[in-house]
Amino acid sequence: MGRSSRSITATKIIAVWACLWAGPPALANPTIEIVERPYKVDATTIAGLRRQMSTRGPVGYWAYTRGHVVWRGHCEVTVRVRYSLPQHTRPEAMPADVRAKWDRMLKAMRAHEEQHGQHSINAGREIKAAGCRNGLAILRKWRAQDRAYDARTGHGKTEGVDLR
């Protein structure tokens, strides 16, 4: 074995040792897609806003977050989070006291729904980190977290998602 062969072999050994020492490469995060689909409200009273959100809101709620986690191929994970929240078409028409309550409620509602979205993102990250093994079990765990979160907060009421 000549001098250049020993040098290449030593370089390969050092490279392999460095990889082993560093541990496995970090897994990339899943692809995350966020979509907002607001629905329109235009009432200017608390009662009117409550009524419109109850009738126009998604699936019987004032707001809703749909998280969809998909994995395929060589563990390509995509998380799609769709937020559906009310959007007032003419907030300047609301009396100041109603507007202040609306703004507070909407801020709390967004934070609550974003926590649901984070649960879906966490599920996608965990599935990716697990190399896409046990994906359904991981997904069930995070769906249970969603249900527990809503039970604990009364679907956000204890966090300010109320309008009175």
Overall domain count: 1
- Distance N terminus to C terminus? 85 Å
Instruction: Give, in order, the helices and strands.
Output: HEEHEEEHH
Q: Report the sheet with the most strands, covering strand number, pairing sense and barrel closure.
A: 3 strands, mixed
* Proportion of strand residues: 15-25%
Mass-distribution shape: elongated
Write down the overall mean pLDDT: 87
Can you describe what's shown?
By secondary structure, this protein is of the alpha/beta class. It has one domain (28-159). The protein is 51% helix and 18% strand. The chain is built from 4 helices and 5 strands; from the N terminus they run αββαβββαα. It has helices spanning 3-22, 46-56, 96-129, 135-153; strands at 31-36, 39-41, 64-72, 76-84, 86-88. Strands 1-4-3 form a 3-stranded mixed sheet, covered by helices on one side. Strands 2-5 form a two-stranded parallel ribbon. A hairpin with a 3-residue loop joins β3 (64-72) and β4. α3 runs antiparallel to α4. The longest helix has 34 residues, at 96-129. It is elongated. The chain starts with a helix and ends in an 11-residue tail after the last helix. The model is unreliable at 3-27 (pLDDT under 50).
Topology:
Blueprint: H1 3-22, E1 31-36, E2 39-41, H2 46-56, E3 64-72, E4 76-84, E5 86-88, H3 96-129, H4 135-153
Parallel strand pairs: 1-4, 2-5
Antiparallel strand pairs: 3-4
Helix pairs in contact: 3-4
Protein name: DUF922 domain-containing protein
Signal peptide: 1-28
Pfam families: DUF922 (PF06037)
Concise overview:
With 164 residues, the chain is α/β, with parallel strands linked by helices. It has helices at residues 3-22, 46-56, 96-129, 135-153, and strands at residues 31-36, 39-41, 64-72, 76-84, 86-88. The radius of gyration is 24 Å and the shape is elongated.
